[in-house]
Structures are given as structure tokens and as C-alpha cells.
Amino acid sequence: MNDTRDRIVEATAALFQQRGYTGSGLKQISTDSAAPFGSLYHFFPGGKEELAAATLRWSGHGYQLLVTTVFDAAPDIVTGVGDAFEGAAEALRLSDYADACPIATVALEVASTNEVLRQVTAEIFEAWIAALARRFAAAGIAVDRSRELAIAFVATLEGGFLLCRAAKDTAAMDALGRTMVDTVRAALDTAAFDGR
Amino acid sequence: MNDTRDRIVEATAALFQQRGYTGSGLKQISTDSAAPFGSLYHFFPGGKEELAAATLRWSGHGYQLLVTTVFDAAPDIVTGVGDAFEGAAEALRLSDYADACPIATVALEVASTNEVLRQVTAEIFEAWIAALARRFAAAGIAVDRSRELAIAFVATLEGGFLLCRAAKDTAAMDALGRTMVDTVRAALDTAAFDGR
Among all residues of chain B, which has the CA nearest to that of A178? Predict the structure, then answer.
């Protein structure tokens, strides 16, 4: 990776979190990354769409690593689920509710208007779901149920970011974390019972 | 309500669903509602922000009525929860995944940039959560747990819209509906057990 290219992608990611795709102009990206317009088109000949696709993939990969790290650090998967929701609440408070999930923000904006970027957001959500489903399955939960739990985890976390940013309060994320922990615990209990 | 004002709000709501706040221009709203620019400023002297606030409240109230109607038509609350998720999946398919929740789309866009509209979206989510919490409590679930379930319902439904629109597929909403039904059923069982 090139330093200038990295700076452009990072600046775009930060703008997407706070303003979405339509609200993030190339001029602002150029200013925030201290990269001239020519650089933007040098690294992303396809313009804003190509830059957006690269930024979404970069952000999506980062969040996946973040959640994986939280799960790896936890003594068990139920604790990992709770820690992930606590971490999300903490991230919201630390950024004073400024930072949303850039994938969600852009996905809602472009789903009807930009097929290329819609597919990129779909691929990222699918990668998250598949990674989480593997974790749940490795903990002993049936494969089908693991995928359902992974979908519930991602949808709940995204819904939580939405509610907490709107309310400027993390109470919703705390409540969602408790519910998700209960759901995963119940699935593990069922798996243990079935495995007897 | 005035016919022209209604047309303006309806056209704005449709545009918000598909393009969000930043992507919906007053010019397009004027065209779509067949209302001249002067009308827009006559009914909404505060301009786009005032029009957006009125549109969000109108849409938010409509969705609340829709979910309430689904719950009223169901024989019990667990069936109501399942029906609501099925209805959401059907709405996505019928609109060919074009229509998102306009409250969510705008909330993610404006949370950091427009304090007036952020508060409007927060009030709408809170009204939904309060209405659902009353339903769960009326079914016998403890008040605190009823609020947690209501938060989970709204977050899950919003997260489901996001995942399904990105994927152009309702499989995620079906899975989320099953998980939410299980969660509410478990809460009812706990309430019945505690009440014995």
C-alpha cells in the first residue's frame, strides 16, 4: 500500500462514517487527506465510486478484525458477545456519537442507486456473518442455527448503532447486548442438551 | 391537512426512502409532488429542514400504525412478532428492495450534522419502543424486560432492512423473525413461570 493512497482511503472512511457517500465530496476528501485531486484520480481512475468501493472494503475488513479480536480475547463465546456490545457502546461514547458504521450508512444510501456499491456492502455483511457463524459453530452450535445467530448479531449491532446515535445514549446498546448474550447462551444450552 | 402539503410530504418520504436526506433535492421534491417551489416555502418556511422534520414524523407515525395493526390482527403477541417480520420481508420484495426505512436512512446521515433532525429521529424511535413495550407488558412480561424486548424488536427490524436491501434477498429477515419469535416466547415463558 502507498502512503498517499492509505491517507485518501482513511480520510474517506472517516467522512463516510459521519456524512455518508452522497455527503462526502471529493474536494473534502482531497483536503482531509492532504492529497491533491490528481492523486485521487491517479489511485482511483474510476473516481468516487472506485474510491468508495476500496474504502468500504478496507473499513469492512477492519471491523471484522476488531470483532474477531474481541472474541479471541474472551474466555468463552458468550463473554465475547457481551464484550463486543460493550465495545460498541464505548466506541459510540468515545466519538461522542459521531462515528457510525460506514458500511451501514452507505448501504442505506446506495442500495437503490448504485449497483456496484450495493454489491460491495452485501459482500462485506456476508463476510461478517460467515466469520461469526464459524465462531458459533466452533462453540458447538448447529450450523444452521449458527448462521441465524450471526445474522442476529450483525443486525442487532447495526440497529443498536442506529438507535444510540439518534438518541446520543448507549442504553439501547446495553439492552441489546444483554438480549444477544441470553440468545447465544440459550443456543449453547440447546446444543449441549442435543449433544448428550 | 392540505392536499398540496400532503403531496409534498408524501413525495419527500418516498425520496428519503430511496436516497436519504442529502440525496433528496428540493427541485426533485417539487417535480415529484407537482408543487411549485413557492408552495414548498409556503408550507415549510424553514425550508428543507422543516420539510424533513414533518416528513419524518409523518412516516414514523405511519410505520407505528402499521406495526400496531399487525399486532392487533394477530391472535397473540408471538404470532404478531412473526407477522411483523414477514410483513417487512414482503414489503422489501414488493418494492424490489427499493424502499428502506426513511427514519433509519436519515438518522444515520444527520446524526452528526443536524441536531434538529437527529432529535426528531430519536423521538420517533422512542415512540416506537414505548408503544411496543406497552404491548409486551400487556402480554404479561415484566416492564423492564418489555422495554428491552421492544428495543431488540426495533433494532433487529432496522438491521434486517439494512442486510436485506444490501443483499437484495429476504433470507436475513426470515432468520431474524425466527430468532425474535423465540426471544419473545422465552420471555413469556419466564413471565408465566414467575407468575405461578
Answer: B148
Domains in chain B, number: 1
Instruction: Residue B20: list chain A partners with CB under 8 A.
Output: 20, 22, 108-109
CATH code of residue A176: 1.10.357.10
Tens of each residue's pLDDT in chain A, 196 residues: 579 999 999 999 999 988 889 889 999 999 999 999 999 999 999 999 999 999 999 999 999 999 999 999 999 999 999 999 999 999 999 999 987 788 998 898 888 889 999 999 999 999 999 999 999 999 999 999 999 999 999 999 999 999 999 999 999 999 999 999 999 999 999 888 876 6
- Interface pTM (ipTM) of the complex? 0.93
Q: What is the DSSP string of B149-193?
A: HHHHHHHHHHHHHHHHHHHT-SHHHHHHHHHHHHHHHHHHHHHHH
Q: Which of B12, B4, B22, B15 is nearest to B108 (CA)?
A: B22
Cβ-based neighbour number of residue B28 at 10 Å: 14
Cβ separation A109–B151 shorter than 8 A: no
The DSSP element (H or E) to which A194 belongs, if any, is: helix A171-194
In angstroms, the separation between the Cα of residue B2 and the nearest Cα of chain A is 30
- Residue A3's nearest CA partner among A26, A38, A33, A44 is A33
- For residue A166, list chain B residues with Cβ-Cβ distance below 8 A: 107, 111, 118, 121-122, 125
Query: Residue B68 is part of which domain span?
Result: 56-195
Check whether B195 has a pLDDT greater than 80. no
Provide the shortest C-alpha distance from residue A21 to chain B (in Å): 9
